[in-house]
Structure formats: C-alpha cells, structure tokens
Amino acid sequence: xxxxxxxxxxxxxxxxxxxxxxxxxxxxxxxxxxxxxxxxxxxxxxxxxxxxxxxxxxxxxxxxxxxxxxxxxxxxxxxxxxxxxxxxxxxxxxxxxxxxxxxxxxxxxxxxxxxxxxxxxxxxxxxxxxxxxxxxxxxxxxx
Length: 143
Fold this sequence. Notes:
The protein is α/β, with parallel strands linked by helices. The protein is 45% helix and 17% strand. The protein has helices at residues 13-25, 36-42, 61-71, 85-93, 106-129, and strands at 5-9, 29-33, 47-52, 76-80, 98-101. Helix 3 (61-71) links the parallel strand 3 and strand 4.
C-alpha cells in the first residue's frame, strides 16, 4: 500500500513540528503550511487528509475548509483551541469531518486520523467496486 499523505495547516510552528514528527514516525508523508492560502496551494490529489487550525492570520481555517470543499472531498480534521459547542458546529458545518480541541493527546490525534483514513479508504473502495448506475430519462412524446 502506498504511503498516505497528510497536510498540516497550522500557524504555530511548534505544533506543526510536533505533529509532523509524530506522523512521520507512523510512516505518513507530511506536507506543511503555515496559513490557509499556502494550505490551499499545497492541497492536491495525493492529499489523503488535512489537519486544519481554525484561528490563523489571513484566511481562517473555516474559510480554508470551505474553499477545500469546493474542490475536494478529502477528510478535514480541525485542530483548534476553540472549544465551545458553537465553534465545533461552525467547523463541522463548514465541511469539517472531525474536531479536536487543543491541548490534545497525540494518541487521540493519531486515533482520529486513522479512523478518518479508514473511512475514506472504505468509501473509495466501495465507489470503485459499485456497479455503474443506470440513468433513466422520462419525457413527454411530441404530438
């Protein structure tokens, strides 16, 4: 199986580095971006999951997620200090798939990443194996 690629979009260099070290130690390929605009530029068809901070200078993580959703169905895991229920709801409604509040446990982060990747792999496999759907068209005959 090909190594999976994770894009971390986080303005805090220390958090980015810690997460990168953890994920590379687990065998993932890690791409990094320090803001939403750079994250969008680095997003590509090899990206398997995006870890996205909410509060970043320039483009917020919420806006970044909305832009990602215009071009990709890649899983998005918000990693943020915003911990109110309303904050979580905004993130999920913007297209996020999961939400983890800082400070976080590396074990929980890794577990959530693996769960999102597992679901994506299952859905992708099911889509590949699904028989082509039939399209039926109905219309009115001309007189």
